[in-house]
UniProtKB/TrEMBL annotation:
<dbReference type="GO" id="GO:0008879">
    <property type="term" value="F:glucose-1-phosphate thymidylyltransferase activity"/>
</dbReference>
<keyword id="KW-0808">Transferase</keyword>
<dbReference type="InterPro" id="IPR005907">
    <property type="entry name" value="G1P_thy_trans_s"/>
</dbReference>
<feature type="domain" description="Nucleotidyl transferase">
    <location>
        <begin position="5"/>
        <end position="240"/>
    </location>
</feature>
<keyword id="KW-0479">Metal-binding</keyword>
<comment type="function">
    <text>Catalyzes the formation of dTDP-glucose, from dTTP and glucose 1-phosphate, as well as its pyrophosphorolysis.</text>
</comment>
<keyword id="KW-0548">Nucleotidyltransferase</keyword>
<comment type="similarity">
    <text>Belongs to the glucose-1-phosphate thymidylyltransferase family.</text>
</comment>
<dbReference type="InterPro" id="IPR005835">
    <property type="entry name" value="NTP_transferase_dom"/>
</dbReference>
<dbReference type="Pfam" id="PF00483">
    <property type="entry name" value="NTP_transferase"/>
</dbReference>
<keyword id="KW-0460">Magnesium</keyword>
<protein>
    <recommendedName>
        <fullName>Glucose-1-phosphate thymidylyltransferase</fullName>
        <ecNumber>2.7.7.24</ecNumber>
    </recommendedName>
</protein>
<dbReference type="InterPro" id="IPR029044">
    <property type="entry name" value="Nucleotide-diphossugar_trans"/>
</dbReference>
Length: 291
C-alpha cells in the first residue's frame, strides 16, 4: 500500500477570533504551553505519517516556517502550500493534489484537538484501510453547528448533512479525515454550496453513496475540542493544563511522539530539550531521556 501522507489545513481568516487573529494566525495561538498547530500535528504523527503538507494563507506562511521548519527536527518532511482564499475544507485536496501524487491522506483541521486513551489505536486502524475513507463522529450537545451524521436502523451511517436545522443525530463529524488517493479527483467534481464553498460533507457524500465511507464514533473516553471561539480557545488551554498538571505528562508534544516512534534519537531529543531551556516543556523532554 502506498504510504499515507498528511495534510494540516491551517489557513482561513480566523475572523471569529478577532481581534486576537488580526495579526497572528489562529493556528499559532497558544493552547496552554504549545502553539495550536502542535496538536493536529501530533495526531498526524500518532497515525504514523511523516510527510505532511501544511496549508496556510500567503501572509502567514513565513511564521509557520519559522515555527515548524522543514520537519527534520522530528524526523519528518514538511511541504508548505498557500491557500489564496478560504473556499471550503474540500479545497485542501485540490491544493495538495501534486503533493499527494495519488497517495492516500489523513487531513486534520489546524484548530482541532483530540485526546483519548485508544486514540493511537483508532488512528492506526483507519490508516490500514487502503480504499475509501474513514471519518469520526463525536457526540455534541448542539449538532446544528456542525456537519452531522445520520444513521439507519442498523446503526450504519446513511447521510452527512452540513449544519442541519433538524439534525438526524447528535454525532458531529470531527475535523479528521482519512481518505484514499481518489480524494482530489472527487473534490474537482463537487459543486460549491450556497455559501460558495467546497464543503467537506459534499466530498464525503461521494464515498458514502458508494458504501466506502466508514464512520467511527468516539465514545465518552475521548475529547474533541474545536478552538474557533474565544471561549473554546480558553477551554482548550484549561483542558490541556489540567491534564498536564494532574498526570505529569505533556499533551500533543511532537518531540515525545517522534522519540517514541523512533524517528529521532536521544541526541536529537536532547537538542530539543536544550532549545527550550529551563521551561517546564524543556524539563519534561529532559526527563524522557532518563525514564
Amino acid at each position: 500500500m502506498t504510504q499515507r501522507k498528511g495534510i494540516i489545513l491551517a489557513g482561513g481568516s480566523g475572523t471569529r477570533l478577532y481581534p486576537l487573529t488580526m495579526a497572528v494566525s489562529k493556528q499559532l495561538m497558544p493552547i496552554y504551553d504549545k502553539p495550536m498547530i502542535f496538536y493536529p500535528l501530533s495526531i498526524v504523527m500518532l497515525a504514523g505519517v511523516r510527510e505532511v503538507a501544511i496549508i496556510t494563507t500567503p501572509e502567514d506562511q513565513a511564521q509557520f516556517r519559522r515555527l515548524l521548519g522543514d520537519g527534520s527536527q522530528w524526523g519528518m518532511s514538511f511541504e508548505y502550500i498557500e491557500q489564496p482564499s478560504p473556499d471550503g475544507l474540500a479545497q485542501a485536496y485540490l491544493l495538495a493534489e501534486d503533493f499527494l501524487d495519488g497517495a492516500p491522506s489523513v487531513m486534520v483541521l489546524g484548530d482541532n484537538i483530540f485526546f483519548g486513551h485508544d486514540l493511537p489505536k483508532m488512528l492506526r486502524s483507519a490508516d490500514e484501510r487502503a480504499d475509501g475513507g474513514t471519518v469520526f463522529g463525536y457526540h455534541v450537545a448542539e449538532p446544528q453547528h456542525y456537519g452531522v451524521v445520520g444513521f439507519d436502523a442498523n446503526g450504519q451511517a446513511n447521510q452527512i448533512i452540513e449544519k442541519p436545522s433538524e439534525p438526524p443525530s447528535n454525532f458531529a463529524v470531527t475535523g479528521l479525515y482519512f481518505l484514499d488517493g481518489d480524494a482530489p479527483r472527487r473534490a474537482k467534481e463537487i459543486k460549491p454550496s450556497a455559501r460558495g464553498e467546497l464543503e467537506i460533507t459534499s466530498l464525503l457524500e461521494t464515498y458514502l453513496g458508494e458504501g466506502t465511507l466508514s464512520v467511527e464514533t468516539m465514545g465518552r473516553g475521548f475529547a474533541w475540542l474545536d478552538t474557533g471561539t474565544h471561549g473554546s480557545l480558553l477551554d482548550a488551554g484549561n483542558f490541556v493544563r489540567t491534564l498536564s498538571l494532574r498526570q505529569g505528562m505533556l499533551v500533543g508534544s511532537p518531540e515525545e511522539i517522534a522519540f517514541d516512534n523512533g524517528w529521532i534519537d536521544e541526541v536529537q531529543l536532547r537538542e530539543r530539550a536544550e532549545l527550550f531551556g529551563k521551561t517546564d516543556y524543556g524539563a519534561y523532554l529532559q526527563r524522557l531521556l532518563v525514564r
